């Protein structure tokens, strides 16, 4: 009996080790040499990873008030309006800001539309273009690691979350930040009378089932782990995104898991959200993928194949 249990455990360890990429250092993370280019607002383009000596902007002191990270995959029809609305808001707040759009292997004109919108609005917008689709989690990670804002927000390219929700999140971040660390998560699941939340009943039902399961597995009080509207302090982004492993839909859950393990203050604020047609989420396929990734996070950190010290920013020791 004991041998059987040991064999099963050994099989599970090997299975999860083989079918995941347990990045143990920054160098191993980029050892795949992904073909990624940074395209500046003026059109200048250069490889993001030119050699083994990688300098990430997130490891340097913040030089702007704010960074907006926008992961995008085939979003040429939706990203222009989203960028217009967000840029207008940032200009009204007189922020010194940057916008980083990560084109995650799009086959349409997402990059061109984003760059043209930045020129039209005369703002500091750049595009990180990946030649292959790696997933939303990977896109957000790459964007965050190349940001220079004191606050870093990632927002979905469809513009489903109204940027006016940012004000309350900003205030909440200021309240909870301790020693430069803080994360605020937007939530569509708060029953607050003045919050707009319009989505199909089926998606709402699926979301609540997922939230219930995640709450049981990870003992978190966060009501909406998957909302594409999350705000980080510069230091929190350093700590979290150097560690993050998951590259697709469930990466949000790993972010919350890391926050809890590293005792990074995290809070939740209701946001105005409306479902926008044209989403890429495949209910059946992506739910199966998310279920697998949820198990990966729980098991791989538990058996220490993934660790909170897998990646370390020079000059900043990760804490257990």
From TrEMBL:
It is an enzyme of class 2 (transferase). It is a single-pass membrane protein. The lineage of its organism: Eukaryota, Sar, Alveolata, Ciliophora, Postciliodesmatophora. Its EC number is 2.4.1.117. InterPro entries: DPG_synthase, Glyco_trans_2-like, Nucleotide-diphossugar_trans. Its main location: endoplasmic reticulum. One of its GO terms (biological process) is protein N-linked glycosylation. This is dolichyl-phosphate beta-glucosyltransferase. Belongs to the glycosyltransferase 2 family. Pfam families: Glycos_transf_2 (PF00535). The chain crosses the membrane at residues 6-26. Gene3D superfamilies: Spore Coat Polysaccharide Biosynthesis Protein SpsA, Chain A. PANTHER family: DOLICHYL-PHOSPHATE BETA-GLUCOSYLTRANSFERASE, GLYCOSYL TRANSFERASE. Pathway: Protein modification; protein glycosylation. GO terms for molecular function: dolichyl-phosphate beta-glucosyltransferase activity. It catalyses: a di-trans,poly-cis-dolichyl phosphate + UDP-alpha-D-glucose = a di-trans,poly-cis-dolichyl beta-D-glucosyl phosphate + UDP. Keywords: Endoplasmic reticulum, Glycosyltransferase, Membrane, Signal-anchor, Transferase, Transmembrane, Transmembrane helix. GO terms for cellular component: endoplasmic reticulum membrane. Residues 67-237 form the Glycosyltransferase 2-like domain. It is found in: Endoplasmic reticulum membrane.
